[in-house]
Specification:
Shape: globular
CATH class: Alpha Beta
CATH superfamily: CBS-domain
Number of domains: 1
Radius of gyration: 18 Å
CATH topology: CBS-domain
Distance between the termini: 16 Å
Oligomer: single chain
Number of strands: 4
Strand content: 15-25%
């Protein structure tokens, strides 16, 4: 099984200058957790998703704490006004200002095989893997692989006698 055999190739993408509000609206409409950010040539720029958005909406004092887990912030007041203030600050800004950190992102190519996909997904801490084709210095986005794609590929492979999910005859 390779990334090409299980990747999602019908992607919902956004441009670097799209607003955070537009990104959230698209994520809600399409029921996706992460949106690849691409330029006009289809080159992968970064990833914007619900994890990043959650951190953007925290009060500034919480986001300045450095490395934290969302589950360890029970001491914060339950003030929807604070979230509303943060939303007002970030909703109109371009997503390029808030992409996932490069250190968190992992990539694969269409030829990346199953064991390497599992390792990359584990390292990505819940983020989907952009599937890219290198064209010189350009990283052309051709798909995404998430945990559900891998699970579906395994199940479909087992159900239909070793045939990879995502392929049809």
């Amino acid at each position: 099984m390779t990334a090409a055999s299980i990747m999602t190739s019908r992607l919902y993408t956004i441009k670097p200058d799209d607003s955070v509000a537009d990104a959230l609206l698209l994520m809600h409409r399409k029921q996706v957790r992460n949106l690849p950010v691409v330029n006009d040539q289809g080159e992968f720029i970064g990833l914007f998703g619900l994890n990043r958005l959650s951190r953007l909406l925290l009060p500034i004092s919480a986001s300045e704490m450095g490395r934290f887990s969302l589950s360890n912030l029970h001491f914060l007041p339950d003030e929807s006004a604070l979230v509303g203030e943060r939303w007002s600050e970030v909703s109109g800004q371009p997503v390029v200002n808030f992409l996932e950190k490069k250190s968190k992102l992992r990539y694969c190519t269409p030829e990346t095989r199953f064991p390497a996909l599992l390792a990359l997904l584990d390292e990505s801490k819940g983020l989907s893997l952009p599937v890219i084709v290198l064209d010189g210095e350009t990283r052309k986005l051709v798909g995404m692989v998430g945990a559900w794609d891998v699970l579906e590929g395994i199940v479909m492979g087992c159900l239909i006698g070793g045939k990879n999910g995502g392929e049809s005859e």
